[in-house]
Each structure stands twice: as structure tokens, then as C-alpha cells.
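Design a sequence for this backbone.
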């Protein structure tokens, strides 16, 4: 079994907890109050900027040019995802430039950047993979019976798409090829999953 699958399966409890979180369920059925989603959009935009920076640091540390290209392609994917947030912000009157990160957001971004600077590119990939794999999983689960038409349909459509699945798999392949199977990798991956759950809960509690 590949290490990316081993890590994902070892954290199914947290993946399920994220799927069961009231914030995610509210996206799924369209009942999430708009102010909670608006807060999430701003926080996620701040997070994605840090995500792109971590990808760039990892690219510089990649052991070969193929890895360098992979991380830069993934950073481009993040920039495309930010465009989705820009469209949300524009339609809902959110000024993304004035957003201040909440405690849960800051803990997550500080962790990612610190891992990127202190670890090798394989460890950084392990820290970033949970976000990609989890969002793809959540999108597909929420779209299991078809994508309902409501104010959050585009969110579900984006993360359940084949295009996002391909991006997620690209990072998983990097994890498989460059990441060691050790306690540090496992604890790093799990901490990132815990940060994801905390991120959703923080948005729900607004």
C-alpha cells in the first residue's frame, strides 16, 4: 500500500468528523448561514496564499526538476482556486484585502510555512496533502446523490470535479515518491487533518 493511502486511511476518523461538521453539512444542503460562509471565504483566501508560498518553498527544495515542476504546477492550481474565492467575494461584497486571520487560520498557516522552511519537500507534501485529499473527498461525498442547486453548489462542483481530483492525485504521487514512512510524517499529516477540522469549526462558530 502506498504511503499516501496509508496516511489517508489512518486518519479516516478526522475525515469523517469533517464531513459530519455542521459547517460542511450546511454547505451540502445549502442551509449554511451566509455570514458563516463569508467568514470562511476570507479565511480560506488567507490560507491559500500561505499554501501557495509553501508550495514555492517546497519547489526550491525539490530533489529533481520533475519535483520542481510538480510544485509549481500545484501552486498554479492554488491561484486558480483563489479566483473562485475572488468571485465569491465580489458577488457577496467581501473585501479580501481587509481580512485578518483568525486563530485557527493562523495556527494552520504558521504550521505549513514552518514545515516548508524546516523540512524537506517530502515532509512539506505530507503536510499539504490532507487539505487536497480532504476537499476532494468532501466534494465527492456531498455530490454523491447529485449536486443540488443552491448558493453553495459551485463549491461542491469545484471540489468534486475531475480536475480537482487530478490536482489532488498529483500531490499524492509526490508523497509516494519522496516522503518517508516514519513517525514524523504520520504526526505531521495528522496535525494538518486536525487543523482542517478546527478550520471548519471556527467558521461554524462565527
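Sequence:
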Amino acid at each position: 500500500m502506498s504511503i499516501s493511502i496509508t496516511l489517508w486511511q489512518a486518519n479516516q476518523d478526522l475525515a469523517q468528523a469533517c464531513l459530519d461538521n455542521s459547517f460542511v453539512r450546511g454547505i451540502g444542503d445549502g442551509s449554511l448561514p451566509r455570514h458563516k460562509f463569508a467568514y470562511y471565504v476570507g479565511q480560506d483566501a488567507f490560507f491559500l496564499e500561505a499554501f501557495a508560498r509553501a508550495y514555492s518553498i517546497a519547489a526550491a527544495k525539490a530533489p529533481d526538476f520533475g519535483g520542481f515542476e510538480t510544485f509549481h504546477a500545484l501552486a498554479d492550481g492554488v491561484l486558480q482556486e483563489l479566483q473562485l474565492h475572488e468571485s465569491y467575494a465580489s458577488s457577496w461584497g467581501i473585501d479580501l484585502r481587509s481580512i485578518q486571520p483568525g486563530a485557527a487560520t493562523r495556527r494552520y498557516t504558521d504550521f505549513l510555512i514552518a514545515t516548508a522552511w524546516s523540512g524537506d519537500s517530502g515532509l512539506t507534501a505530507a503536510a499539504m496533502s490532507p487539505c487536497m485529499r480532504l476537499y476532494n473527498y468532501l466534494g465527492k461525498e456531498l455530490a454523491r446523490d447529485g449536486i443540488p442547486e443552491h448558493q453553495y453548489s459551485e463549491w461542491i462542483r469545484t471540489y468534486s470535479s475531475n480536475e480537482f481530483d487530478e490536482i489532488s492525485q498529483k500531490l499524492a504521487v509526490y508523497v509516494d515518491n519522496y516522503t518517508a514512512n516514519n513517525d514524523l510524517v504520520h504526526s505531521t499529516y495528522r496535525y494538518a487533518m486536525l487543523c482542517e477540522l478546527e478550520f471548519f469549526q471556527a467558521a461554524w462558530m462565527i
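The chain has one domain: 3-204.
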